[in-house]
Design brief:
The protein is elongated and about 60 Å long. It has 181 residues and is mainly alpha-helical. Helix 2 runs antiparallel to helix 3, helix 5 packs antiparallel against helix 8 and helix 7 runs antiparallel to helix 8. The two termini are 25 Å apart. It has 2 domains: 44 residues; 108 residues, no CATH class. A hairpin with a 2-residue loop joins strand 1 and strand 2. Strands 1-2 form a two-stranded antiparallel ribbon. It contains 8 helices and 2 strands.
Amino acid sequence: MKKKELHKEIKILSKQGLTKTAIFEQLKSHSSIKERKLATMVAAIPDKILCQLHSGKNNALITLMFIQALVGGLAGYFIGLEISESSAITFAAFIAGIPLLLAFGFYRHNYQAFQIYIFLTLLGLSNSFKGFDEDPASTLIGLSINIGMLVYVVYVKSKLFPEFAFWGLKKGQEGEYQFSN
């Protein structure tokens, strides 16, 4: 089975009410994909009960992403105005577009959106220290906002996708993949 076919099959089996463990065991022998990749694909399926249970946390995260998009769009607009008016619109659209795309991923309970946010935030943390000598208070405020958002995204991700550790799948004592059922 190819990846796309396997992904469709996982969704079909999930809609039929099979547990993630049962889906994994059923497809493990039928696919040519490695067990780790198959386990990741199965674990990334959003659990409807967990999504409903933690919808308030997820909605708060989406709201924070909209605020981040608004602030980023305004900052991009004013930075772009120094170049030209068309650059201002381009900068604003680009800078606001990234948080809006991530908010859409969070809305759809997409595991990859959480991972992309974590990855991009960790990449940008080193840039947060630039300008510390000139204005340490503003730098520390920005850094604490970034770290707070990162912690909250990891928290929401752990509630919606308990099969995953910070970066990768959780395994049991004997090395088997653990799924919440």
